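Attaching the record inline, Q. Sequence:
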Amino acid sequence: MKKTAAAALVFCMLLAGCQRSPQRYTDQRYDLFDTLIVLTAYSGSRETFDAMSDLAFSEFERLHRLFDTYTDTGEGLSRLNAAAGQGPRQVEPEVMQLLLLGKQGYELTGGKVNIAMGAVLQLWSDAREAALEDPDSAALPDMDALRQASAHCSIDDLVLDEQAGTAELCDAELRIDVGAVAKGFATGLVAAALCDARYTDFVISAGGNVWAEGAPPGKDGWTVGVQSPDDSGSLLTTLTLSDAAAVTSGGYLRHMTVDGVQYHHIIDPDTLMPSDEALSATVIYTDSGVADILSTACFMLPQDKSAALIQKVDGARLILLGKDGKLSEIP
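Structure, as predicted:
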């Protein structure tokens, strides 16, 4: 059925005047990258959009398996984590790209974004899961355990050999966690796959990660709202995006409550506790993976250091909601 539809589309494109006016279509999945992923596009037919959606979500599903560090998928990062301390291991090309980006992100952010922090982040993840199962018994991770785990978070113990296609975790207790970059990086890869297949005029929303390609008919770009971190459902601001990413980091999606205090999931490597420097940080940039790294770092940095970081990346913009509730845009 879908092969017939694709062939009909090619045929139709050869006949002047036979294409329909583009219509807006949307599709979504809840089960990938621990978030809701929505694809919206303008297309000449439902069949064309369905083929586009199949490609997008099959790519997201493949990348989810490769980048998942909390489930034993037998491939990708879960396989690499399982081989910690056992020498170099072959990794898939996309995994190598992600690990290289993670190393670059560590240098760019002065260590604020560290994909080698999995041992610490696992303790926080376990605490959040326990809190979900039994809210009355919710408790913070033990600080001594966090400090012991932090001794196994050196990015230098992640050794990459691009030519050989191998990665090695030299510390047997080191664990990779790519939560600060994986969704943005994957969204960029999926957008590139759609463009390679000659699809245009679409927007992908994966949690706080948005990629906008082209524009709706007659528009300069896609209108994207930046959500307020409170529970009101209101927007802080709206953006017009085309061929660019907007990535928001905030503590309002994943958190737990202990003794009446809410603790979110973005952990500062310096304190081993959730950061309290900002309420949300949104970065607009032409590289979705880099935007994800920058938004995470800017959420954890004081405003002056966030501004200095953004100004190091030509073309990047930051919309920051400070802990005082003031909204600022840099530059």
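The CA atoms of residues 251 and 264 lie 5 Å apart. The longest helix spans residues 46-67.

More tomorrow.
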